[in-house]
Automatic annotation (TrEMBL):
Identification of the protein by name: DUF1275 domain-containing protein
UniProt organism field: Kushneria phosphatilytica
Membrane spanning residue stretches: 7-36, 56-78, 90-109, 187-213
Recorded superkingdom: Bacteria
Keyword Transmembrane helix among record annotations: yes
Keyword NADP: no
Keywords: Membrane, Transmembrane, Transmembrane helix
């Protein structure tokens, strides 16, 4: 159970959830209309497309899922643990994510399906990177687990258990930030187009630089 939420955990989780909501909304609204920040819905669609023998869209969705997996693998190679701990190579992971998003933007601008694959890879990297903290699961690219945990915490409180205030604060902030990111991404995409994907790339890259500087300062 969370006893304290360090500022870097709260700020980082909220920022990454905002970026994930932003990216996923643009992917939904784009020329292909596929989700890139989570896997469950895509695998369900893959089953339906298999029944319909719609092989081309099935192939596209399969590559999105594989790309998410590859992103998570990159995170595993860099961080080697699911537990959040100051000092690990989050800065490098964030910079790689930023590069993936920048490359995805260029491909989206050219209406190339590779943009979806790179965006999904970035989300897979991000989701695996932010896994657990003090026994509380932290996911930033989809909200099913977050909403389940919030509901369980409220239900426990209703039958007399102590209210998990800090857990609810963190997870509520993540859910709200994801929604705000999706709202912002959808509105800006309608006004400007795919170029707005550069915003999360820059935000994630800046977060990577700031984390790396903080890590160097603490090591000095």
């Amino acid at each position: 159970m969370l006893t304290r939420i360090p500022g870097w955990v709260m700020i980082g989780s909220v920022l990454l959830a905002f970026c994930a909501g932003y990216i996923n909304c643009i992917a939904f609204l784009g020329f292909a209309g596929n989700a890139v920040s989570h896997v469950t819905g895509n695998i369900t669609l893959m089953a339906q497309l298999t029944i319909e023998r719609a092989w081309y869209p099935l192939w596209q969705l399969t590559l999105i899922v594989i790309s998410f997996l590859v992103g998570a693998m990159i995170s595993g190679m860099l961080l080697r643990s699911e537990a959040l701990k100051l000092g690990r190579q989050y800065g490098l992971a964030l910079l790689i994510e930023s590069l993936l998003l920048a490359m995805a933007t260029l491909l989206f601008l050219n209406r190339a399906y590779g943009g979806e694959w790179l965006a999904s890879m970035a989300c897979g990297l991000q989701n695996a990177m932010v896994a657990t903290y003090s026994g509380s699961v932290i996911r930033t690219t989809h909200l099913t687990g977050i909403v389940s945990d919030i509901g369980a915490a409220i239900g426990s409180f209703m039958v007399g258990e102590p209210l998990r205030t800090r857990q609810l604060t963190l997870q509520g902030a993540i859910a709200g930030s994801f929604f705000t990111g999706a709202l912002s991404g959808g509105w800006l995409f309608g006004a400007i187009g795919y170029a707005v994907l550069l915003a999360p790339a820059l935000l994630v890259g800046l977060a990577g630089v700031l984390y790396s500087l903080m890590r160097l300062e603490r090591a000095a």
